[in-house]
Amino acid sequence: MKINETGRIGAVQQIRRHDAKLAGMADRKKMKDEVQISPEAKELLGARGAASAQPVSEARRQLVEQLKHSVSAGTYSVDPRTVAERLLPYIK
After folding, report:
1. How far apart are CA 24 and CA 33, in angstroms?
2. Has this prediction a pTM greater than 0.90?
3. Residue 78 backbone dihedrals phi, psi, to 5 degrees
4. How many degrees, rounded to 5, is the angle at CA 17 between CA 14 and CA 18?
5. CA-to-CA distance for 92 and 87, rounded, in angstroms?
6. pLDDT computed for residue 44 by the predictor
7. What is the distance between the alpha carbons of residues 37 and 62, in angstroms, rounded to a whole number?
8. What does the pLDDT look like over 13-69, one tens digit per residue?
């Protein structure tokens, strides 16, 4: 019996190597990421949360209520030039 074109075996071996590589990638995808937060970072997060939990001043609360009322009544106006000037540094 004569076997011709033995070079085709190389193609089969390449396919098997590729399949093995994909199987290895699938195993890596099953691994989960893990994050560890240092005690210093936890302390900073706690301090930040305590700072944001401070009560809002009465003047600030009145300003927010006034703005809400203006927006809901449709009397709040925005100066387009001021908005453009404030956005310009971020666009450059």
Report:
1. 17
2. no
3. -115, 135
4. 85
5. 9
6. 87
7. 39
8. 788 888 877 777 666 666 677 889 899 988 888 877 766 666 778 888 899 999 999
Domain boundaries of the chain, sorted by first residue? 57-92
The DSSP code sequence of 19-76 is: HHHHHHHHHHHHS-------HHHHHHHHHHHHHHTSPPPHHHHHHHHHHHHHHHHT--
| Alpha carbon distance 15, 7 (integer Å) | 14
In the structure encoding, which two tokens stand for residue 48, read together?
């930040």
Task: Say yes or no to pLDDT of 88 above 80.
Answer: yes
Overall residue count recorded for the chain in this entry: 92
Q: Distance (Å, rounded) from C-alpha 73 to C-alpha 67?
A: 10
How deeply is 89 buried, as exposed, middle or buried, from its count of CB atoms within 10 A (0-12, 13-18, 19+)?
exposed
d(CA 87, CA 83): 6
Instruction: Please give the structure tokens belonging to residue 73.
Output: 């009544």
